[in-house]
Amino acid sequence: MIIYPAVDVKDGRCVRLVQGEFDKVTVYSDDPVEMALKWESMGAQYLHVVDLDGARTGRSCNIPIISEMAVKIGIPVQLGGGIRTIENIETILCKGIHRVILGTSAVKDPDLVKQALENFGDSIVVGIDAKDGMVAIEGWAKTSKFTAIGFARKMEELGAKTIIYTDIARDGMLSGPNLKAMEEMANAVNVEVIASGGVSDINDIKDLRKVGVRGVIVGKALYTGDLDLKEAIEVAAK
């Protein structure tokens, strides 16, 4: 199981939101690149980056600093937030970013996912953000008509190999992950499932190892010091 430290970028700074609410923002660093280097130095194997401005506006907003981050660190970066077109995906992948996450665009335009998977293969990840079991879109501001598991199966049929599954209610709350939902998703599809939302301490990492997910995104708990990244990586690797 891989631990993915999260670096959320808003207005060029490293921040964390609570349940995706833009008025509940905490700034942890004015330099996202420095933060990325810190997580790499502590043993991170992969970095999860979100362009929060992109998620809100529907267009990539922080690509220059995220590209700088990808170039300066020696580990791969996956990026989500506001990525809506094949041209945008291609531009991002050409800037040293390893994987692109499609969320809202996957719900609104499944043909985009199909074409992206055909063109870029394993460089495409589908992000499924769930609210009460339903897929949320547009920076979590709206709820779609799809169930999380039903949509995941649809994406698997299109050829997706990796899904990031976020429980919005747990995100940024340090309340523990939704283990039941994560286990149901891991058992429902034959793709790599990365869990996101609610990780608060090392016990959550141990619990997630048991439910069958292949990766865990950790954010706020790292920034508050409730979770030690080195310890989390050691536990995940067992």
Report on the structure:
39% of the residues lie in helices and 29% in strands. The protein has helices at 32-41, 52-57, 63-72, 86-93, 104-108, 110-120, 148-158, 179-188, 202-210, 220-224, 229-237, and strands spanning 2-10, 13-18, 21-29, 47-51, 77-80, 99-102, 124-131, 134-137, 142-147, 162-167, 192-196, 215-218. Helix 9 runs parallel beside helix 11 (229-237). It has 238 residues and is α/β, with parallel strands linked by helices. The chain has an eight-stranded parallel beta barrel, surrounded by seven helices.
Q: What structural class do you assign from the helix and strand content?
A: alpha/beta
Q: How many distinct beta strands?
A: 12
CATH superfamily: Aldolase class I
Inertia-based shape: globular
Poorly predicted tracts of residues: none
Q: Averaging pLDDT over every residue, what do you get?
A: 92
Instruction: Give the biggest sheet.
Output: 8 strands, parallel, barrel
Q: Might you state the CATH topology name?
A: TIM Barrel
Count structural domains: 1
- The helix-strand sequence is EEEHEHHEHEHHEEEHEHEHEHH
How are strands sequenced across the largest beta sheet?
1-4-5-6-7-10-11-12
Continuous helix count = 11
- Quickly name the level 1 CATH class: Alpha Beta
Helical residues, percent: 25-40%
Strand content: 25-35%
CATH architecture: Alpha-Beta Barrel
- Rg over C-alpha atoms, rounded to the nearest angstrom: 16 Å
Distance between the termini: 8 Å
